[in-house]
Amino acid sequence: MLRLVSTASRPSSAGRLGKTAVPPKGRRAFASTSAKHADISLTVDGKEVTVPQGSALIQACEAAGATIPRFCYHDRLAIAGNCRMCLVEVERSPKPVASCAMPAMPGSKVWTNTPLVHEAREGVMEFLLANHPLDCPICDQGGECDLQDQSMRYGSDRSRFHEITGKRAVEDKNLGPLVKTSMNRCIQCTRCVRFANEVAGVEDLGTTGRGNDMQIGMYVEKTMNSELSGNVVDLCPVGALTSKPYAFHARPWELKNTESIDVTDAVGSNIRVDSRGVRVMRVQPRTNDDVNEEWISDKARYAYDGLTFQRLTAPLIKQGDRFVAATWEEALSAIADGLAKTGAQGDEIQAIAGHLADTESLVALKDLINCLGSDNLATDQLGGTAPPVHGVDVRSNYLFNPTIPGIEQADAILLVGTNPRHEAAVLNSRIRKSWLHTTLEVGFIGERVDTAYGYDYLGQDIKAVQEFVAGKGEFAAKFKAAKKPLIIIGSAISEHPDGASVYNQLASYVQTHKNKLLTPEWNGFSVLQRAASRSAAYDIGFVSSAKAAKTTPKFIYLLNADEVDPKSISKDAFVVYQGHHGDLGAQLADVCLPGAAYTEKSTTWVNTEGRAQLGSAAVPPPGASRDDWKIIRALSEVLNVQLPYEDVLALRDRMWEISPTLVRYDAVESTSPDVALAGLKVLVESTKKAAFKGLPFEKPIKNFYMTDPISRASVTMAQCTRAFTGDQESGISDEKGLQAAFA
Amino acid sequence: MTTIPSRLARPTQLSASITDARKRSIQLYRDWYRSAPEIVQLYALNVSPAYVRHCIRERFEANRYVTDQRAIDVLLLKWRQEYQETVNCWKQRDHVEGILLAPQHRPQRSFLQKFYEGRDEDAVRPAATGAI
Amino acid sequence: MSLLNAWKQAALTSRSTGLKHLITSTRLVSSESSSTPANKKSGEIVTPEAPRDVLVADVISGAPTELRHRPVRIYQPTRNTMQSGSGKSERWRIDFDILPGGGRWENPLMGWASSADYMQGTRLSFRSKEDAVHFAEKQGWDYYIQQTTVKRIPPKNYAENFLYRPSKLRILRTK
């Protein structure tokens, strides 16, 4: 059984698996429940090293600081042992030993530098290169290719390849619009096969044939229909699987790498944005075992080309039915005039925050709206104008409390009204990992979907929740018997008419079973957000009071809000849209203010666990766009309610005043069980009288590839929609549809 | 006109103490101050010697609070070199105007002015006006 | 206590009180700018706020003083996920944040990227975090240290591929 070591083994300069280090500030070190290993010690290259028992020899060598070349071994996949590049010499062994497959034995002596090892590596390299085409000039992997690097370092300098028949040729497989295959270059390491099988859950990739004729493919004509399919591009050590949208666009040495945070979903995956000049060329994942391991979803990876289309680059003022470009002075004074003309007072001034609003601008906007005398703040979801069902007073009511790495400790998970495969793809892969390697049981309430693991289907509406809470059914019994059960409520539940009763039922269930669900080490009640800005909005209190929710707004400020219902905005209201794409929100607006997209500003994003992370700007915003919080600050000055901060440090001071978690980066502040219980009590009290209609829970994301303005503007995402959801109409505009009224 | 390379040259010297450094900087200031009319005449500048003295004073004031002796020594060295180059007429007029006489402090701008301009003028002094 | 106040406290006690100087200077610029832009007479010589101790290198390096207003990020670059080698990720890097408005723009002549930012291509590498921090303090730059990303690789062994589990099979290992 794969043991998941949860006490941090931090990388040190000595190697990957060093001694355990002190956990960083802000994170309490809980006692680990995984089994303790005895440590064994062995000698690598004369150096004594101690590793947990059950480690592979390659891990021991890495811990000693020796770099072992490998093609098929990957830290997060099962061991295959078929490339033979990791051969090392072990004492008293007749042959060199594949260090990835050999477990580290205590007291053994290993050498990674002897002539035998060198010859072994040269030999393996020679065999790999024998059938490898001379594609380096046209291969996308050039410059970041494992084969290139390892042949330069460990291979021989001359070739002995004199085959008259030439090299083997293999047909290219069509894996979809995202992964470009060039199977001539494949070295059959089977990393992609193992990834698809274990992590992605689409068990379609496999090997056909054997020996020289072995091919990797689907065997049938099939696309790789997984939301994590882009990760095989990273895994493939050669250029067999490359990124189709990025094909032939750039070389890795001309790219500038900026480490940032992804905002296409609420997981807050760590990414590295590679840019050249003013354009983002690609998005790569960053390793962070606390959030996204090493994977990112396809939307995070490939939606970047939407950053170049449909951008708002100049302030726009609506005149008649057209938008006219204006200067910033004109636009801001037009907003001031519009506000005065509508005569909006107090709660008639409303602000709606969208999915991609960053924390700094949310804070600035809330301050501005409050200074104007209003309490009417909304989020752009269904029913977003009313205060949310779960309340925002206690953090544990709306966050993913067990934290993302904590999912692996759960042994029973109940998913209510959520499709984690689409809402948080990388989180879903963690659930799958746990499901594969442990005896995890998953129960599902909601619209039936194919998550990448098996689940017990309990129903689609509140009746299923009630039955579960009452203890009826086999899964409820399993849940009760679990040591660390976990309830994941989807964000769609708060938008559902029955949401209040669902929360009531589940919160009372957690209260009754608090000895298992709410202990100091484990909080099993969690809400999975799907919008990157939602946790931050709730953290700062970007919600309206009940009184404010009832007033009809006359002045509406949309901050990246593109999921609003156009019918909810009255005809004579003055609408201002601040965002970066000309999507729905811009069409509804009277004044459009161009802001910066997530790759163009250094702002804070709070993910669904409540972890604040700092993104970074990779490219400057186009045209006359400005940073979002600066726009709000300038507007406040024009409206004579000048906000007190002028630079981002002062704004972050303000954020610290509101909630210190917003500026404590990369750490999760967990809620104590007492506070969590108090929060649940409030939740139960406030939803006591909620009536339910018994409507079925529907999945909130109809099309995974188009959920925010950036992905909707992206050509790659349109191709994916067409390929993977069978929707042939998407991406093709017809004349009958709404035309954006831009000048 | 030619000058010998060692005219007005001083060997590199480390100050013995902070008072020694202070003495040396005052000596340097005196030399600069007294050379102001000569600089104006040498490079045919359009400004008065008083303005040149004002600029010299500005540069000295900018470093008033340096207390690290090593930094003071380096500053003295560099500005002594500048003095030599300027008074020996080894520079040209543009050098003098651009380095010595360039205005040190730009006008303070309000947040709104910086916002409309688009650039954070505190963080960049653009060489050209550039695009938007 | 405000975050920046806490920072100032820390700066007072450390040797690099030039940070305080920076903080006060940036504070000075930003708070003054709104109130009295017109009060300064053009001929008036403005001395900077008197800090305790000015750092060594930023005064004598000849670097433009505008550089002191720009924050810098100290981090360990992540391993390139396309490759297995982790050589570059052991070093620490100093990277400048992009300049708002002056970072890069498209040149109208050829469409290439022009820049007003002379630090946009500069990436300094250091062997350790302390070296990087020392350098940034010496130069008088505001810095933000990005935490190293957490890596937890469990011990792996080949026998897991063949482990018997009595429950229903959840994955067919076909390689």
Briefly say what this structure is.
The complex is a heterotrimer of chains A (743), B (132) and C (175). Chain A is of the alpha/beta class.
How would you explain this protein's 3D organization?
The complex is a heterotrimer of chains A (743), B (132) and C (175). Chain A is an alpha/beta fold. Chain A is built from 23 helices and 28 strands. With 132 residues, chain B is mainly alpha-helical. Chain B has a domain at 18-106. In chain B, 56% of the residues lie in helices and 0% in strands. Chain B is built from 5 helices and no strands. With 175 residues, chain C is an alpha+beta fold. Chain C has a domain at 57-79 and 89-150: Double Stranded RNA Binding Domain. Chain C has 4 helices and 6 strands; from the N terminus they run αααβββββαβ. At the A-B interface, α19 of A face α5 of B.
Q: What name goes with the CATH superfamily of the domain at 401-528 and 671-687 in chain A?
A: Dimethylsulfoxide Reductase, domain 2
Distance between the termini of chain C: 58 Å
From the 3D coordinates, which CATH architecture of the domain at 401-528 and 671-687 in chain A would you assign? 3-Layer(aba) Sandwich
Largest interface: A-C, 98 and 62 residues
Q: Helix content range of the residues of chain C, please?
A: 25-40%
- Please provide the ordered H/E string of secondary-structure elements of chain C: HHHEEEEEHE
What structural class is derived from the secondary structure elements of chain A? alpha/beta
Strand order of the largest sheet of chain C: 5-2-1-6
Query: Averaging pLDDT over every residue of chain C, what do you get?
Result: 72
Rg measurement of chain C, Å = 24 Å
Any idea what the CATH architecture of the domain at 57-79 and 89-150 in chain C is? Answer: 2-Layer Sandwich
What would the CATH topology of the domain at 57-79 and 89-150 in chain C be?
Double Stranded RNA Binding Domain
Fraction of residues of chain A in helices?
A: 25-40%
Number of helices of chain C: 4
Segments of chain C where pLDDT lies below 50 for 5+ residues? Answer: 1-42, 49-54
Count of strand segments of chain C: 6
Q: Which strands sit side by side, in order, in the main sheet of chain A?
A: 14-13-26-25-24-15-16
| Main sheet summary of chain C | 4 strands, mixed
